[in-house]
Specification:
The complex is a heterodimer. In chain A, about 45% of the residues lie in helices and about 25% in strands. By secondary structure, chain A is α+β, with helices and mostly antiparallel strands. Chain A has two domains: about 5-130, no CATH class; about 130-280, START domain (Alpha-D-Glucose-1,6-Bisphosphate, Chain A, domain 4), CATH 3.30.530.20. In chain A, strand 4 (about 175-185) and strand 5 (about 185-200) form a beta hairpin. Chain B has two domains: about 1-170 and about 335-390, Medium-chain alcohol dehydrogenases, catalytic domain (Quinone Oxidoreductase, Chain A, domain 1, Alpha-Beta Complex); about 175-335, 3-Layer(aba) Sandwich (Rossmann fold). By secondary structure, chain B is α/β, with parallel strands linked by helices. In chain B, strands 3, 4, 5, 8, 9, 16 and 17 form a seven-stranded mixed sheet that branches. In chain B, strands 12-11-10-13-14-15 form a six-stranded parallel sheet, with helices on both faces. In chain B, about 30% of the residues lie in helices and about 20% in strands. The chains are: A alpha+beta, B alpha/beta. Chains A and B meet through helix 9 and helix 10 of A and helix 3 of B. Chain B: This is Glutathione-dependent formaldehyde dehydrogenase. Chain B: Keywords: Metal-binding, Oxidoreductase, Zinc. Chain B: GO terms for molecular function: oxidoreductase activity; zinc ion binding. Chain B: InterPro entries: ADH-like_C, ADH-like_N, ADH_Zn_CS, GroES-like_sf, NAD(P)-bd_dom_sf.
């Protein structure tokens, strides 16, 4: 029912990213070609396990180099941070069990890796996008005419009935409105929106105006379904979700997955368009809501207090 | 009020719960006069249907008297005092599926459509007392129940037929009838029915009403086979008889023209090694259902015949005989019963005496003895065929 596309970052010409890429290559080549010599240079001796570990680290460095120079993406930078932490752990163990020969070189190597780690963390944090534009599309079909469905949707102040994340929509002018919505982690976001296109019975498009907490835009098209089957509703939404990929993952974990929200919204819209209200059960007294799908209220009548809360 | 609740795998309890209230404007509250235990309740109790919650009220076959209606019910559709039978699938009457009379595929009545969409590809309707996969609606094994969208989901009984004559219009009678209806029975047809439980018995009665020449009952419980034999049906006990050979024998080598699977996910098999194979896969969850009856029906059906499935399946099955199905031009038809489609015509048949639904009732118990009823029915004790509960 839904799809999305995310833009990928363009780090191809970033000097720090390219520098880290070439540094990875410069470290990786000798580690793979001459692991024993490299290990000795670090002052950790060339026992077989040290050689194997050095080769493995070299392979990792070459992979990071290929990633950063070939298809740069913040994930490679975070990968380097992970690798650095492994290296520091290994060097820390080497220092603890050191026999004293070449101790100075091991200490120097540890200092160098610490500096590299700091650089990698800096690059990874600064090059990770703070927000990621997201585009969602979804569709449903309802057994009503395009005009009826358009009229229902155009009544913006009724949107919170089926878009449960919306607390309020207030019409402020012929083409403008003010929106307030609940966001993950109990926050509230607000924005002003303007209608950019309005074709009765066919299309409504809108976008947030400057200064919105979350920049967003969207359009909904009403298309007659073939064979008199009613109206196809095609929605596409685009917005900048704060927090980057991490924020998205966290939101998903708490059941705020944007696709699912849109899917739920359309299901409730269909219920309102076809039967006049959102269907409630004892298990799901608030109606369709992915976040409340589990755990649910048991399928038994609600107590008076529960009933008041559910119907409020 | 008192209600029979699911309290865990293989455990039901009659508990005190709040009385139901109007949640949607077209709801009605019904004081239940008769309710029944259905074979598909056993799938819930046995733990094969996911998404049950402790405290869920069971029961989807019920009838009673309307005691309250919501503000959205238009005049005269359902009134306080009406005596009604409630179909188990909740249908909105307005979506494309309902308009096509595919009521159990209603697109609007299941608030947990997301779960059912993930399991089945598209959502299915809400059902009373039948897990949260079908909406989390409270069931009817209780003193009162909320009827959802009551103006499309309650059949008014205006004649003086007894509860026992009309109660089964809520599920098993239309389900059995739909099993036979999907067979497109023609003159001279031999119809074989797997499962001689309540739904199987009604499928047999319906096949005969629709013109079948010969009806064959397949089961392992002799009391159930005896009940079928008493109606004049031929019987096969799969415990001591090879079903396919027996069917070929009874049909001059052709195989039954139409086959009805009235068994579903918890089938047993006469050959213990095959049963063990499916049981083991089900235990490690690599298969959710045991499709013995379905496989046997496909393998036995005559070429070009119809296999009609009304036994409940829930998930994925292995070793589906696709070769037999395709190479021998079989038609496979199935569905949760679209009860609303059949209620009125079946009510007329009951009034005309063409079908006697009361013939399968073996036990009548007060609602407070529901756990005993489940034990009798599930473990086939005391020749139990159908239990009716009186609140």
């Amino acid at each position: 029912m839904t799809t999305d596309t995310r833009s990928t970052s363009s780090l191809r010409h970033d000097p720090l990213v390219r520098g880290l890429g070439w540094a990875s290559a410069a470290l990786g080549v000798p580690q793979v070609v001459a692991p024993a010599g490299f290990a000795r240079a670090l002052g950790v001796g060339d026992a077989p396990r040290h050689r194997t570990a050095t080769t493995a680290v070299g392979v990792r460095e070459l992979a990071a180099a290929a990633g950063l120079l070939g298809r740069p993406h913040p994930v490679w930078l975070w990968g380097r941070v992970g690798g650095d932490l492994m290296d520091l752990t290994m060097l820390g163990r080497a220092l603890k069990n050191h026999d004293g020969r070449g101790l100075g070189r091991t200490v120097a190597a540890t200092a160098a890796v610490t500096a590299i780690t700091a650089t990698d963390v800096y690059a990874a944090v600064t090059r990770t996008r703070r927000s990621s534009p997201m585009e969602l599309t979804a569709a449903t079909t309802v057994t009503r005419s395009p005009d009826e469905v358009y009229t229902l949707w155009k009544d913006l102040e009724r949107l919170p009935e089926f878009m449960v994340h919306l607390d309020e929509v207030r019409v402020t002018g012929p083409r403008t409105s003010h929106w307030r919505a609940g966001a993950p982690f109990g926050r509230t976001v607000e924005w002003d929106a303007e209608i950019t296109q309005d074709v009765p019975g066919q299309l409504i498009a809108w976008r947030s105006v400057d200064g919105a907490d979350i920049d967003n835009s969207g359009e909904v098209r009403f298309v007659p379904a073939p064979g008199g089957r009613g109206t196809e509703i095609h929605v596409s939404l685009r917005y900048d979700l704060p927090g980057g990929p991490l924020g998205q993952a966290a939101a998903r974990y708490f059941g705020e997955e944007p696709h699912q929200q849109l899917d739920d919204d359309l299901r409730r819209f269909k219920q309102i368009a076809e039967i006049g209200e959102v269907v409630r059960s004892e298990g799901a007294p608030g109606g369709k809501r992915a976040r409340g799908e589990f755990p649910q209220h048991p399928a038994r009548p609600l107590t008076e207090d529960e009933l008041k809360e559910a119907l409020s | 009020m008192k209600a029979n609740c699911w309290t865990g795998r293989n455990s039901v309890e009659v508990q005190d719960v709040p009385d139901p209230s109007i949640l949607n404007s077209r709801d009605a509250i019904v004081k239940i006069t008769s309710t029944a235990i259905c074979g598909s309740d056993l799938h819930l109790v046995d733990g094969y249907v996911p998404t049950m919650e402790k405290g869920d009220i069971l029961g989807h076959e019920f009838m009673g008297e309307v005691v309250e209606v919501g503000s959205g019910i238009s005049d005269g559709k359902v009134r306080v005092g009406d005596r009604v039978v409630v179909p188990f699938p909740i249908a909105c009457g307005a979506c494309a599926s309902c308009r096509a009379e595919l009521y159990s595929c209603c697109e609007n009545s299941n608030p947990n459509a997301g779960i059912s969409e993930k399991m089945f590809g598209h959502p299915t309707c809400g059902i009373y007392g039948y897990s949260h996969l079908t909406g989390g609606f409270a069931g009817g094994q209780a003193e009162y129940a909320r009827v959802v969208l009551a103006d499309t989901n309650a059949l008014k009984i205006e004649s003086d037929l007894s509860d026992e004559q009309v109660l089964f219009l809520s599920d098993i009678l239309p389900t059995g009838f739909m099993g036979a209806d999907m067979c497109d029975i023609e003159e001279g047809d031999v119809v074989a029915v797997w499962g001689a439980g309540p739904v199987g018995q009604f499928a047999m009665d319906s096949a005969r009403v629709l013109g079948a020449e010969k009806v064959i009952a397949i089961d392992k419980e002799t009391y159930r086979l005896d009940m079928a034999a008493a109606q004049g049906y031929t019987t096969i006990n799969f415990e001591d008889t090879d079903v396919r050979s027996a069917l070929l024998e009874l049909t001059g080598g052709r195989g039954p023209d139409k086959c009805i699977d009235a068994v579903g996910m918890e089938a047993t098999h006469g050959a213990s090694h095959i049963h063990l194979y499916d049981r083991a896969k089900q235990a490690v969850r690599s298969e959710t259902d045991r499709p013995h009856a379905l496989r046997q029906a496909i393998m036995s059906c005559r070429s070009g015949g119809v296999v009609s499935v009304i036994g409940v399946y829930g998930g994925m099955i292995d070793k589906f005989p696709a070769g037999a199905w395709m190479n021998r031009s079989l038609t496979l038809r199935t569905g949760q019963c679209h009860v609303q489609r059949y209620m009125q015509p079946l009510l007329a048949m009951i009034e005309q005496g063409k079908i006697d639904p009361t013939r399968i009732i073996t036990h009548r118990l007060p609602l407070t003895e529901a756990p005993t009823g489940y034990d009798l029915f599930k473990n086939k004790k005391d020749n139990c065929e159908k239990v009716v509960l009186k609140p």
